[in-house]
Amino acid sequence: MNAQEIIARRVAREVRPGTLVNLGIGIPTLVANYLPASLGVFFQSENGVVGMGARPPEGMENRNLTDAGGSFVTAVPGAASIDSAMSFGLIRGGHLDMTVLGGLQVDAQGRLANWMVPGKMVPGMGGAMDLVSGARRVVVAMTHTAKGVPKIVPCCTLPLTSLRRVSLIVTEMAVVEPTEQGLVLRERAPGVSVEAILAATEAPLRADGEVPEMSLESAR
Amino acid sequence: MKSVISAAQAAARIPDGAVLMIGGFMGVGSPHRMIDALVECGRGSFTVIANDSARPGIGIGKLIDGRRIRRLVVSHIGTNPETQRQMITGEIEVELVPQGTLAERVRAGGFGLGGILTKTGLGTPVEDGKPTFAVDGETWLVERPLRADFALVAAKQADYVGNLCYQLTAQNFNPIMAMAADIVIAEAEEIVAVGIVPPDMVRTPGVLVDAMLRGDASARDLQGAVATAERAAPATGAARSQQ
């Protein structure tokens, strides 16, 4: 199982039945692959649909129905289409149960940086700032390190996406929960030691007693 | 009854340096025929307020390619390397606005509000140079309303009164932009007789619309072709990954 699959499978276990969820692009998108339809989850795409479905078969595309990246999608039975003001009203207004976003850095205070690298990458924040500021739960799905460099750091050196403390960080090595008292190591990936996780983490990380292995089962 | 004009006639009404709101999200729900006519008419130095600049050769990306935009107010440029190139060389000024804040600034402009208070952007570079405001002990960021000289919107269906209906994710910024400009030009995939559109289906009342034109099938096909290519090989670069 590669890093992306471990992360996506573990994040999928955070999704509660019958909730409204927004998945960011990249690893977060993969989470949908591990959620059974019976869970009754509605996916929001911030360009204007509640109840986004899988990609349509060839020839069945509707040019007026895409995801936020402009790729064709479908709408599930019971879906609703909305304008941009309503879409972000859902996000900021506390109606979105959970968002899963990629990350460049998360710091000891649980603050996320994921939208720009000064001098290198300035794509714009899109909906990320609203999602992190407004969603009821914010789960960061990212690799633990980038080219060996820890991404969980004492203080973000990259511009923040929001001051809001994220709810959970899921990597291919660990599940980390930011709390008022700092970062707490909740779970470790199968076969990964606490020592290895601490060595790959730059921010102070507390482990309370025995740290259980994360479950990657998808069926519930 | 509203006049149905050609794209060229619509473009002829828009002077150099005009402030334009253009509907669409990655080209979906953009007024493609209107954009083509704007590129052809030769005028430019526009300020464009939109969600994004799509991709080169697509939607608002055509105005970028044609160097018709002096200032761009958008939430995202990561999918258009040409926008980034022009930004770096200083040919174009880009103001990046969080998408939800952009929607609310447009809405405030159209709904007669003096601005909005939001948590989005607090403690980030978005806050720079803007006032904050405390309400009952909570701090909020003050964001100003946006208005335009022209809103160029796209609709699924219009009637001759100018009532507009949208389809699925092609509505995006179109309904709020139709509220926030002095002159509203709507490009509709079809224009039908008055009475055909049930009042409950109207999202933009015709009183807001000044002129209409018919959409162009080839532009839509182009969008579809690109989205299909995108589906075959999804862009997963750093520019998209954080969107």
Task: Briefly characterize the structure.
With 220 residues, chain A is of the alpha/beta class. Helix content of chain A is 16%, strand content 26%. In chain A, the strands form 3 sheets. Chain A has a 10-stranded mixed β-sheet with strand order 4-3-2-1-5-8-12-13-14-15.
Describe this entry's structure for a reader.
The complex is a heterodimer of chains A (220) and B (243). Chain A is built from five helices and 15 strands. Chain A is α/β, with parallel strands linked by helices and 220 residues long. The longest helix of chain A has 10 residues. Chain A is globular. Chain A starts with a helix and ends in a 14-residue tail after the last strand. Chain B has one domain: Glutaconate Coenzyme A-transferase (3-Layer(aba) Sandwich). Chain B is built from eight helices and eleven strands. The longest helix of chain B is centred in the C-terminal third of the chain and has 16 residues. The radius of gyration of chain B is 18 Å and the shape is globular.
What is this structure's SSE topology?
The complex is a heterodimer of chains A (220) and B (243).
Chain A: H1 3-12, E1 20-23, H2 27-30, E2 42-45, E3 49-53, E4 74-81, H3 84-92, E5 98-101, E6 105-107, E7 112-113, H4 128-134, E8 138-141, E9 145-146, E10 149-150, E11 152-153, E12 168-170, E13 174-179, E14 182-188, H5 194-199, E15 205-206
Parallel strand pairs in A: 1-2, 1-5, 5-8, 6-11, 8-12, 14-15
Antiparallel strand pairs in A: 2-3, 3-4, 6-7, 9-10, 12-13, 13-14
Chain B: H1 7-12, E1 19-22, H2 32-41, E2 46-49, H3 61-65, E3 69-74, H4 81-89, E4 93-96, H5 99-111, E5 116-118, E6 132-135, E7 138-143, E8 148-159, E9 164-165, H6 174-177, E10 181-192, E11 211-214, H7 217-232, H8 238-241
Parallel strand pairs in B: 1-2, 1-8, 2-3, 3-4, 8-10, 10-11
Antiparallel strand pairs in B: 5-7, 6-7, 8-9
